[in-house]
Write a structure and sequence with these properties.
Elements lengths: L8 E3 H8 L3 H13 L4 E4 L2 E3 L7 H8 L3 E3 L1 H7 L9 E6 L9 E4 L2 E7 L8 E5 L7 E5 L1 H12 L15 H8 L4 H10 L1
Parallel strand pairs: 5-7
Antiparallel strand pairs: 1-3, 2-3, 4-5, 6-7, 8-9
Helix pairs in contact: 1-2, 4-5
Length: about 190
């Protein structure tokens, strides 16, 4: 599947635009490949390879670019909170249709959160533990907790935070980019 060789996810609309092809024809081709079992459909107009369905973390950061796993998912994956989170939360600066705010990949729900472009920092590239050779972006723990406060409020209302793991200096540095309410929260807990 040469079209998907260097991409984890293909969005029909974006693909048609980048190749200057007719959108309807491109949609029909991808639908045909899906019916033949050559690719998998994530949702209408979004396709991936079968093997990638095994790791929703890889797919989650490939749908919108730039994006990275953050909020409670990143906190859980990096042992900042002890709770297991049943969804994958992704931060992105890209505008997306309302229908793509929450999607389902196999048995996993992925929720996208829009954040300002100036907050697109503090994340790293990590190899999938499930499918070797595939990667995703994830927020550093300090960034994930600030994103959580920015989008949802105080994480300690729901989770138990392992503060010993966090780099306090980096937390304060990152907080400077956030609105005053996030900085006030940080001042109150330190």
């Amino acid at each position: 599947m040469n079209v998907l060789q260097n991409r984890y996810v293909i969005i029909v609309e974006d693909f048609a635009e980048s190749t200057e092809a007719n959108r309807k024809i491109v949609a029909n081709i991808f639908h045909y490949l899906y019916k033949k079992g050559r690719i998998q459909r994530i949702m209408r107009g979004i396709y991936t390879l079968q093997e990638l369905l095994g790791d929703p973390l890889v797919i989650s950061t490939a749908i919108h670019y730039p994006s990275y796993i953050s909020l409670s998912t990143a906190l859980s994956l990096q042992n900042i909170i002890d709770q297991i989170v049943p969804v994958v939360e992704v931060a992105t600066s890209q505008k997306f249709p309302r229908t793509r705010r929450k999607i389902r990949v196999d048995t996993t729900t992925i929720i996208f959160h829009k954040i300002p472009p100036k907050l697109m920092f503090g994340y790293r590239y990590r190899e999938s533990r499930i499918i070797r050779g595939y990667y995703y972006y994830i927020a550093k723990p300090e960034k994930a907790i600030l994103d959580y406060v920015y989008k949802r409020g105080d994480p300690e209302e729901i989770f138990t935070i392992n503060w010993d793991i966090l780099n306090k200096k980096l937390l304060k540095e990152y907080a400077q980019e956030y609105p005053p309410r996030v900085r006030r929260w940080l001042k109150n807990i330190t």
